[in-house]
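User: Thanks for the earlier help. One more: NADH-quinone oxidoreductase subunit. Can you show the sequence and predicted structure together?

Assistant: Of course, both are below.
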Amino acid sequence: MVFTWLHAAIIVFFIAGLAFAGGPLLGSLLLAPKARGGDIALPYECGMVPHGASWMRFGINYYVYALLFLAFDVDVLYLFPVAAYYPHAEGLMPVIKVFIFLAVLALGVLYFWRKGVFTWPKRVR
């Protein structure tokens, strides 16, 4: 194997990339002030001093809503490339595919609705 300028450039850029990524990490470890004790172990609550039991349990409903939002939000993102392609499409087939996609999303919403996921409980324990 012959060592060429292309190989040298790849090695130089690889080392530069590692230095670019690892330099700030190493610099922060070496140069950043070390804080111990005091308020550093307290949970962050908008800059206010927490009172009462700061480590409390949250209901799973918050996480379920967040996951459902992410799932349907990512699915809706698939519609943007379709909308960009639509002016170049020929025939009715792309419209039918979009309606099938939206029907599957609607069936997912109906399924979660029937399971009672969208009903908020009276009290979170």
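User: Great, one quick takeaway?

Assistant: The chain has a mean pLDDT of 81.
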